[in-house]
């Protein structure tokens, strides 16, 4: 992974953890939908992976990797 991608991922994870505060320690049931929020991903034990789409449009995809929401899109 390139350095810039790691920086973005770390910044996003830090902002999510700071935003959830003490609630991050409270476990929640997995979501039934195919999309999860960043908070649900992190609380479920996952990390958010941001991938640039290779078509040159500047768009990207965010996926939860690991934990109970593994493979689900992050909204």
- What's the mean pLDDT score? 74
Tell me the Rg in angstroms.
Answer: 13 Å
Total discrete domains? 1
**How would the global form be characterised?**
elongated
Biggest sheet features:
2 strands, parallel
Intertermini distance: 22 Å
How big a fraction of the residues is strand?
A: 15-25%
Across the major sheet, the strand order is: 1-4
Query: Could you spell the SSE succession in H and E letters?
Result: HEHEEE
What are the low-pLDDT stretches, counting only 5+ consecutive residues below 50? Answer: 20-26
Oligomer: single chain
Structural class: alpha+beta
> What's the tally of helices?
2
**How much helix, percentage-wise, in residues?**
25-40%
Number of strands: 4
What does this structure look like?
The strands form two sheets. Strands 1-4 form a two-stranded parallel sheet. Strands 2-3 form a two-stranded antiparallel sheet. β2 and β3 (60-65) form a beta hairpin. The chain has one domain. It is built from two helices and four strands; from the N terminus they run αβαβββ. By secondary structure, it is an alpha+beta fold.
């Amino acid at each position: 992974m390139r350095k810039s991608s790691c920086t973005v991922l770390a910044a996003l994870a830090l902002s999510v953890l700071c935003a959830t505060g003490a609630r991050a320690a409270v476990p929640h049931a997995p979501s039934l939908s195919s999309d999860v929020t960043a908070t649900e991903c992190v609380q479920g034990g996952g990390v958010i992976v941001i991938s640039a789409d290779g078509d040159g449009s500047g768009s990207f995809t965010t996926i939860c990797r690991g934990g109970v929401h593994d493979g689900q899109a992050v909204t």
